[in-house]
């Protein structure tokens, strides 16, 4: 009997392949990347544009995304810096802008690892599970042109991660993009997973 793949089967296989390309998942806990050596939080502060990213469902309709990091000068009981993060986007389907405000606490003043929680009217124990909240890490940055932002979540025996490429402008030069992709490969992260973020016809306010 000859096997003939059905349309439904082909569709499922395409979806599986798409998700495989877009998301990095595997067995075990998240990879453990050390904090970036000599990380300078002061130089990292300011406005960043999302230039590329891996697939992330909460951002599927988002475009013109910017992230602004500001030092609040507030320190927690352990002396760790507290940052304010303003995330601005435009819904590509409706054209409506949105702003999310979050707080980030770094592990210490020289750490590139931060715990982020978006502000919400929900109890803190619930808000920390909202999309956008979690642990983020600046794997590498030159401060002036780009930053590689990474996050990973573990679920029992498996993990899944996301990558964001941030820039001080809405796009990278070919030289900078080549440098970033080389850094990703050294970190065992596949650049083929990335999508170009939607940055066309963005309002000047973002």
UniProtKB/TrEMBL annotation:
SUPFAM superfamilies in UniProt: Lipocalins
Lipocalin/cytosolic fatty-acid binding domain segment(s): 131-195
GO biological process: lipid metabolic process; response to reactive oxygen species
Signal peptide coordinates: 1-24
Keywords: Lipoprotein, Signal
UniProt xrefs under InterPro entries: Calycin, Lipocalin_ApoD, Lipocalin_CS, Lipocln_cytosolic_FA-bd_dom
Gene3D superfamilies recorded: 2.40.128.20
A Pfam match: Lipocalin
Cellular component GO terms held in the UniProt record: cytoplasm
Assigned protein family: Belongs to the calycin superfamily. Lipocalin family.
Protein name in the entry: Putative apolipoprotein d/lipocalin
The species this protein was found in: Aedes albopictus (Asian tiger mosquito)
């Amino acid at each position: 009997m000859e096997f003939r793949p059905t349309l439904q089967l082909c569709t499922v296989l395409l979806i599986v392949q798409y998700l495989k390309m877009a998301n990095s998942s595997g067995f075990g806990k998240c990879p453990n990347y050390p904090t970036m050596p000599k990380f300078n939080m002061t130089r990292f502060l300011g406005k960043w544009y999302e230039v590329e990213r891996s697939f992330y469902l909460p951002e599927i309709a988002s475009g013109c995304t910017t992230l602004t990091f500001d030092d609040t000068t507030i320190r927690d009981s352990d002396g760790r810096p507290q940052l304010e993060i303003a995330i601005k986007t435009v819904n590509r389907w409706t054209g409506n802008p949105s702003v999310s405000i979050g707080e980030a606490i770094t592990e210490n003043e020289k750490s590139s690892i931060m715990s982020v929680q978006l502000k919400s009217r929900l109890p803190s124990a619930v808000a920390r599970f909202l999309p956008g909240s979690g642990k983020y890490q600046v794997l590498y940055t030159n401060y002036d042109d780009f930053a590689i932002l990474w996050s990973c979540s573990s679920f029992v025996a498996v993990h899944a991660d996301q990558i964001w490429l941030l820039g001080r402008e809405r796009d990278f030069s070919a030289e900078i993009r080549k440098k970033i992709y080389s850094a990703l490969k050294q970190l065992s992260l596949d650049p083929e997973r990335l999508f170009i973020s939607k940055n066309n016809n963005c309002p000047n306010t973002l």
